[in-house]
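Is zinc ion placement plausible here? Inputs below.
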Amino acid sequence: MEEDKLQEKEFFSWEEFSAFFDAWCERRKVLFFVKNSVPLSKCKWATAPPRPDVVEALKYSSVRLVCKDFRGSSKPEQGGQHKGCCASIVLKMSPKKDRLIVTECQLAHNHALCPIEFAYYFKKGYLMANSCLPVRTTNKISKQFVGGPDVRRLLSYCKSRDHGVLDVLTVLDGLFASDPNAKVKLVFMEDKVIVQTIFFLSSRMMALSRRFPLMLFFDRMVGLNEEFDLYSVLCVDGAGRGREVAYCLTQRETPDLLRFTLASLVQSVPEVKLQVRCITLGVEIAHLEAVKELLPNARVQICRSQVLETLFSKAQELGAAEDERIWPLLCRLAAAKSPAAYQQAAQEMKVILPQRFVRYFQRHWQPRSEMWVQFWAFETARNVNACELLKQHQRRLLAALSPSPTVAQCMLDLLAMQVGSEAHELDEGELATHYRAICKPEPAGLIEEELGFARHGRYRFQETAEGYLLHDGLSKFAMDQALTRCSCSIYTSSLLPCRHLFATRLRTGLALFDPGLLHRNQAALLGAC
Ligand SMILES: [Zn+2]
Ligand SMILES: [Zn+2]
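Reply from A.M.:
I modeled the complex. Tokens:
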């Protein structure tokens, strides 16, 4: 008898049971689902509770699985209603609290078993996946933006720490607690409670992308982890620094991340869609056609130094001889300042590089030359060096991230990096020198003093319709959108930039040295009479 074989069968983990039961159902073409369950993590204990590793392994103190047809079918069948099926299995934790035991099983069905129906509905691994969060919930929420209440609801459903989902949700809960307007999109693997991708940006990052949308950068971080990848979108702030405006953490080899990330960014900050003029991509980013659709006014460039490195290593791989001329030639190619110079370098390639390499070049890089050769792909305004900016970002990430972190830890590190980043980059001495170069000594001294107060831990910022509000713990000060005027007495009496303007500029990414800040006080400038 089948019942005899199952009855009293023991399992030392829910995973073991799930694997056994999947195979058992597959052999018999029967469909069962969990009707009720009591998660161990939610149990109260009169006696000593089971050890944490047992809670983790067994997951439930009891589970009742019933046949898919247990409600019966409402279709009239040969004159009568088809009654619900009684086939069921009950699994309970043993009194010793160390294993799950089948305590009841009723395997007779009151209906025929249909292999076609089975093939349609059966999902291997479903029992295991459902033990952390209900799969229907994760399927429903997947690919959508989630808010604080969604995250708290998911947390209340969460029954175990499987796959780090609980940890990720806890980090998101913290993010929403401190920044309710943050944007987060979660993608779960279909029918599994495994986070595949997380897209997120804080309201501060949103403000940066609104203020500096002209040039964006998109690249993957190299060497983060075996399991997942980190992609970042950067903009260039008023001081010419690369600043993060969105992050995307994803399981390795997830396809088409460029499209997903840009689409999510445009959904979060719709006004950037038409404002982006240029986007520079890392060399390995694929499916560039997504840019045209999502950022219709943006020119696409590929990071030139990365292209160069790729070409050089590909040349070795395809059998180029040790030849000192190769690197300088490739550099001339990439840095060509006219189509003729480019053509000439491309011709020379045929002489000193193997045929196979030339074919590779013609197939992959020649058609995209407008995206990476200097003549066509020049950096736009403000002398931004895209390659240097991407490299600096890589270095910043390497310094900020824990070695091979989990997804949750990585998010924590990235969020912490946002908070500390601009204060690090404030070089008061250098800024004071710039102001002394254009100002008379007395106003330059005042400005220097105010710069010293820019990095103040107690400031709180708020965006308003007119500009910004800053609370310093005692009073509030109002500033205009362009951050050139402040309502405080320091500014109104001197018409020189005050600590509030500097602090808010620092936070929003505007340059702290800006001659525009002195327009209303020409008398402070050197050479004024
Ligand atoms: Zn049945
Ligand atoms: Zn002020």
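Short version: Residues 67, 69, 85, 87, 109, 111 surround zinc ion (ligand 1) (CB under 6 Å).
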